[in-house]
Write a structure and sequence with these properties.
Strand content: 15-25%
CATH class: Alpha Beta
Strand order of the largest sheet: 3-2-1-4-5-7-6
Largest sheet: 7 strands, mixed
Radius of gyration: 18 Å
Order of helices and strands: HHEHEHEHHEHEHEEH
Number of domains: 1
Shape: globular
Length: 257
C-alpha cells in the first residue's frame, strides 16, 4: 500500500489485519514478533495522521540482535508504505552501570553485564537508515530531539533492566507533543517475567513514578487482548490530535490486529 495517502480507513484496517495474521502465523518473518507488531501500531497511527517520517528506538542494545531485528521490521514498512523510517539504538557499550540498590534488581543483574562486544562491528551491520548512539542514555537523549526535528517517534523499546537507568531515560517521553504519534507504542522488556519483578522496583517503578509526575504523558500497560508481549502505550495527552486541535486524516478508531 505505497499510495497510503489515498487509502480509506477500511483499506488501512484490512491491510493491518492481514499483516497481523501473517506475522502471528509466521508466514511473514521480519524480526522479533513483538517489535514488528509494536512498530506496526506506530505506522498505522502515522497513516491515520498523515505523517510520513517515523523514528523507532531501542534503549539498551547490548550485542545488537534486538536493534538489527528492529531494523528488519522498519525496512519492511519502509518498502510497504514508502515511509521514511529511521532506527536509533542507545547504549553505553560498557554494560550495565553501577547498581543503585534493591530497586535495580541486584538479585538478577550486575554491573558490567550485557557489555557491547564491538560497537564499530555492530555499526557496520546497520542499514543506512539506522544509527547507534553510544554514551549514557540520560545524556544522549538530551540532544536527540533536535536530531529528529521533522519526525515522529512511532515505537520505543525500553530494555535497560535497572530502575535507575530507566528513570534517566524517561526524558524521551518529555519532548514536544508533535514529536510523537498520539498513542506511542512501547515494548517494556523487564516487567513481569521474573518472580522477583514487581511494581516497587525496576521498570515498573520507573513507569509509576513517571505517571505520577506528568499530567499529560501517561504510560499504560495494554491488556492481553492486544496479544503483544510486554506491550505498553505512552498516551501523549497534549498531542493536537488528542486535544481536538487537529483532526486526523482518518478516524482514530484503531483496534488490535
Amino acid at each position: 500500500m505505497r499510495n497510503w495517502q489515498k487509502a480509506t480507513a477500511r483499506d488501512v484496517r484490512d491491510s493491518f489485519l492481514a499483516f497481523g495474521r501473517k506475522i502471528r502465523k509466521k508466514e511473514l518473518e521480519i524480526g522479533r514478533m513483538h517489535y514488528a507488531l509494536g512498530l506496526a501500531h506506530g505506522v498505522r497511527q502515522a497513516i491515520h495522521c498523515g505523517y510520513d517520517k517515523l523514528v523507532a528506538v531501542e534503549l539498551g542494545v547490548a550485542a545488537g540482535s534486538g536493534l538489527l531485528s528492529l531494523c528488519q521490521a522498519a525496512e519492511y514498512f519502509r518498502n510497504e508504505f514508502g515511509m521514511d523510517i529511521r532506527v536509533y539504538g542507545f547504549d553505553s557499550a560498557a554494560g550495565l552501570p553501577e547498581l543503585a540498590g534493591y530497586k535495580d534488581h541486584p538479585e538478577v543483574w550486575w554491573e558490567g553485564q550485557f557489555k557491547m562486544p564491538d560497537p564499530e562491528e555492530l555499526r557496520a551491520k546497520l542499514p543506512a537508515f539506522a544509527k547507534l548512539l553510544i554514551g549514557d542514555v540520560g545524556d544522549t537523549i538530551t540532544e536527540f530531539e533536535s536530531e529528529i526535528a521533522d519526525y515522529q517517534l512511532g515505537f520505543i523499546v525500553v530494555d535497560l533492566d535497572f530502575y535507575s537507568s530507566t528513570t534517566r531515560a524517561m526524558k524521551i517521553f518529555e519532548m514536544n507533543p508533535l514529536r510523537y504519534v498520539p498513542a506511542l507504542p512501547l515494548y517494556m522488556d523487564d516487567t513481569e517475567v521474573l518472580i522477583s519483578q514487581n511494581p516497587w522496583c525496576g521498570e515498573e517503578l520507573a513507569i509509576q513514578e513517571f505517571n505520577n509526575n506528568h499530567e499529560f504523558r501517561k504510560i499504560e500497560r495494554k491488556s492481553h487482548f492486544w496479544a503483544i508481549h510486554n506491550f505498553y502505550v505512552c498516551h501523549v495527552l497534549d498531542h493536537p490530535v488528542r486535544t481536538g486541535e487537529t483532526r486526523p486524516r482518518l478516524p482514530f478508531e484503531i483496534r488490535a490486529f
